[in-house]
Write a structure and sequence with these properties.
The protein has one domain. Strand 1 and strand 2 form a beta hairpin. The radius of gyration is 14 Å and the shape is elongated. The chain is built from one helix and three strands, in the order αβββ. It is 14% helix and 28% strand. It is an alpha+beta fold.
Length: 74
Amino acid sequence: MVINILDKEIVDNFEQNLVKQKDGINLSVLDKDDKTLYDGIVWPNEQYEYDAEKGGEYKICISLTSSMFMKGVS
């Protein structure tokens, strides 16, 4: 899975000023029974993989850390 952020100004800001594993995108992956399979911070525009034992239904919840927002940019 890749969570893409395409706006060049935003990408330049997080690549130059922010820290991986502290800033970025909060990502939670849950199975169909709402058991948490992954919960952490991922870096935008990089591929992450999660190995599942079998196919099925999964919930993906994302939100940006507050440091990802730039003053004056919505």
